[in-house]
Design a protein that fits this description.
GNAT_dom; single chain; Aminopeptidase; 38% helix
């Protein structure tokens, strides 16, 4: 696909579009609802409001200027707890085209360059394509529990990469 670009930093409309991408995918495939979409929008808004280019990373993948994927590294507590990988998504237009791999690669390199001791993320059982990419980049499953952090009961999983 032509005209795929990955940008670092805030892009106008990113909060709404990233929340929309998450809401559409997770509602269709996992029956998540308004609680999930509101949580994504609220937490992403808070993150971008305190975004520090030296400590945090936010990447969007665009096709013809429209955001079709994202990933963030929240480095606020990275030295004590590890960098927090969040809001990783790729639209149907980007799936299978290497964009998710590139987003994770950029994030891992940023964390290495920043001297962070580790990266962690929370996900849930069943997201096979994402789990494949996490493992490809060296992440390991370190914790599992049943929970409702996304508004629906799922088998939550924590992945971690020691740098």
């Amino acid at each position: 696909m032509d005209d795929i670009h990955i940008h670092r930093g805030y892009t106008p409309g990113a909060i709404g579009r990233v929340a929309e991408l998450h809401a559409a995918y997770y509602t269709e495939n996992w029956s998540f609802g308004v609680y999930f979409e509101a949580r994504i929008a609220t937490e992403l808004s808070a993150f971008l409001s305190r975004y520090d280019e030296a400590r945090d990373g936010f990447w969007t993948a665009t096709v013809h200027g429209r955001i079709e994927g994202s990933l963030a590294i929240d480095g606020q507590h990275a030295q004590e707890q590890g960098a927090y990988l969040r809001w990783f998504i790729a639209s149907e237009k980007l799936r299978g085209k290497g964009v998710g791999d590139a987003l994770i690669g950029n994030a891992v390199q940023f964390c290495r360059d920043s001297g962070f001791p580790s990266i962690y993320l929370w996900t849930f059982d069943g997201l096979q394509a994402a789990h494949h990419l996490y493992r490809k980049h060296g992440f390991s499953l370190v914790e599992e529990c049943t929970g409702t952090r996304w508004g629906v009961r799922v088998n939550e999983q924590k992945f971690e990469l020691l740098l």
